[in-house]
Amino acid sequence: MSITKIEIITRPEKLEELKEAMNAIAVAGMTVTQVYGCGLQKGHKEIYRGKEVAINLVPKVKVEIVICEVPVEKVLETAKRVCRTGNVGDGKIFVYSLDNAVRIRTGEEGESAIIDPKS
Ligand SMILES: Nc1ncnc2c1ncn2[C@@H]1O[C@H](COP(=O)(O)OP(=O)(O)OP(=O)(O)O)[C@@H](O)[C@H]1O
Ligand SMILES: [Mg+2]
């Protein structure tokens, strides 16, 4: 089994729904960071809290998820369904293959560091 990291950069207002949707498909862990970014439009024409942003970096959230049992496609479909509004700035999803993972408490590596032993 391979370990994949999925990074979703999207609108802050989508975070709650995204968290719940990921929980519903048994995604075990995630790291959330508040970030600033821009995409193809360099931040222009993007609306944040009802205002068009004057600066070129728009607040976003970055959600990092590492999976091995949950299918990558399922995570991608879920993120797209929740985060898509159809307007510019909906975000990006980056997919990486991960070399290794370590659970510090037990020293477990690889899949065992990710998979819940009770599931
Ligand atoms: N090429 C990139 N490299 C790194 N981060 C990126 C890149 N493109 C987008 N991002 C990140 O994703 C966020 C959302 O990007 P955005 O949705 O504006 O992408 P886009 O390609 O311009 O698509 P859209 O046309 O829908 O706006 C950015 O604020 C930035 O944090
Ligand atoms: Mg854009």
Q: Can you give keywords for this protein?
A:
119 residues, alpha+beta, Alpha-Beta Plaits, four-stranded antiparallel beta sheet, two-stranded antiparallel ribbon, 3 helices, 6 strands, elongated, binds adenosine-5'-triphosphate, binds magnesium ion
Structure description:
- This protein is an alpha+beta fold and 119 residues long.
- It has a single domain (4-92), classed as Alpha-Beta Plaits (2-Layer Sandwich), CATH 3.30.70.120.
- It is built from three helices and six strands; from the N terminus they run βαββββαβα.
- It has a four-stranded antiparallel β-sheet, covered by helices on one side. A two-stranded antiparallel sheet has the order 3-4.
- Residues 9, 35, 37-41, 58, 60, 88-92 line the site of adenosine-5'-triphosphate (ATP).
What's the overall average pLDDT, rounded? 92
Count of distinct strands: 6
Strand order of the largest sheet: 2-5-1-6
Number of domains: 1
Net shape: elongated
CATH architecture grouping: 2-Layer Sandwich
> What's the N-to-C terminus distance?
16 Å
Strand content: 25-35%
For this structure, the CATH topology is Alpha-Beta Plaits
Helix fraction? 10-25%
Q: List unreliable stretches of 5+ residues.
A: none
Computed over alpha carbons, the radius of gyration is 16 Å
Structural category: alpha+beta
Described by strand count, sense and barrel closure, the largest sheet is: 4 strands, antiparallel
Q: Using the coordinates above, name the CATH class.
A: Alpha Beta
The ligands found in this model are: adenosine-5'-triphosphate, magnesium ion
